[in-house]
Each structure stands twice: as C-alpha cells, then as structure tokens.
C-alpha cells in the first residue's frame, strides 16, 4: 500500500489487573505520509497594479463618493462600457456589504461578472478595500483578488489623489491569466467620477 493511508489490524496486547491479554483486536490508523504533500500550498504568483489620478477636488468630497454606495450607483451611469450593472446583494455600504457586478459582453478575456465584498472601510484615512468572493477571477485560476481605493490629500481643501490598487494571487498553472488584469477599469472610474464631481462643483458655483 506504500505511503497511502490504511487501517491496520493488530493483536491487542493489553493486560491490567487481570484484564484480557491477547484478546480482541484494536484498530491502528496509519496517517498517510503523503497528506502533507496533498495539503502543500499551491505555487502561486502575486501581482500588484496601481493607478493614481490627481484631481482638483478636496479629498473629502471625493470620499463622499468612493466611501459610499454612491460609487456603485454612479459607475453604471458614468462608465457603462466598464461596468454594466451593479446589484446590492446585502449590506448598506459598510464592511460586509456584497455587490454583484456585471460587465459588458465582449470584454476581451475578462470576467462577465463577480461578487465583491467590502472588507475594510476607513473613513479617517479614506481607504476602502473589496475582495472578490464569487465568480470572475476566482474561476480563472486566481486565488485572491483585491481592489483598494485611497483618497489622498494633495493640497488640503483644494486637490487630492485618487489611488486605485489591485492586488492578486494567481495559481501558477494559470499565470498567463495575469495579463488580463489591468488598471483600465479603475482608471476609467476615477476619470468618470472626478469629471462628474468637477461639473457638479462648477454648477454649484454658478
């Protein structure tokens, strides 16, 4: 049987206070020595991509969109060529909120949909993180996929930076799929949101 797991029957040799010597059998379970090999961590490749956009808007104003569900509502309107539909599966925009994102058909090689979960929202530092929990990249050999948004003060009350970061881990066997990951979507979202807010600001000042 080699190193595979097996059950071995051995004679029972137990005697205590006039017990039962050599009677019966006891079951000895041999733990497979290959189990550790089966549980061995899969070799994977990690990657990080980052995009930054400086905008002439206060960080707080930009965070009012990025830090809330308003972002999910606006992206469909502003960049429908990037995200076609966003459904709120559960939550109110806080940590634990789950969204179902649908992408336009014909998106070259990318996912058609996935569900993401908000795992971190830091209002003080204007930072938000979401991970893919179902579909999309997880069906393409990726072990994890995280998107992080940070709104950084450039000049207080005047300008800020929208920093979008993608972190992923992909199984070595599917390492070629890493080429499908780009910052194009988060860049388009940043451009769309900032343009929208600039128009909103301009309209309010007129």
From TrEMBL:
Pfam families, per the entry: Bet_v_1
SMART domains: Bet_v_1 (SM01037)
Bilayer-crossing regions: none
Signal peptide: none
A GO BP entry: alkaloid metabolic process
Domain (Bet v I/Major latex protein): residue spans on this chain: 44-200
Top-level lineage group: Eukaryota
PANTHER family, alphabetized: BET V I_MAJOR LATEX PROTEIN DOMAIN-CONTAINING PROTEIN (PTHR31213:SF19), OS08G0374000 PROTEIN-RELATED (PTHR31213)
Protein name: (wild Malaysian banana) hypothetical protein
């Amino acid at each position: 049987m080699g190193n595979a797991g097996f059950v071995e029957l051995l004679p029972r040799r137990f005697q205590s206070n006039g017990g039962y010597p050599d009677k019966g059998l006891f079951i000895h379970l041999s733990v497979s020595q290959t189990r550790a090999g089966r549980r061995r961590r899969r070799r994977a490749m990690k990657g990080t991509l980052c995009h930054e956009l400086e905008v002439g808007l206060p960080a707080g104003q930009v965070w009012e969109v990025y830090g809330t569900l308003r972002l999910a509502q606006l992206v469909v309107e502003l960049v429908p060529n990037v995200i076609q539909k966003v459904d709120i599966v559960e939550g109110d925009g806080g940590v634990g909120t789950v969204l179902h994102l649908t992408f336009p058909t014909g998106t070259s090689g990318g996912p058609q949909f996935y569900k993401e979960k908000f795992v971190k929202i830091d209002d003080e530092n204007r930072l938000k993180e979401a991970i893919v929990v179902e579909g999309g990249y997880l069906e393409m050999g990726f072990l994890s996929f995280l998107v992080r948004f940070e709104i950084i003060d450039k000049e207080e009350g005047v300008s800020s930076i929208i920093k979008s970061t993608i972190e992923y881990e992909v199984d070595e066997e599917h390492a070629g799929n890493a080429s499908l990951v780009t910052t194009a979507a988060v860049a388009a979202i940043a451009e769309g949101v900032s343009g929208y807010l600039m128009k909103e600001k301009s309209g309010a000042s007129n």
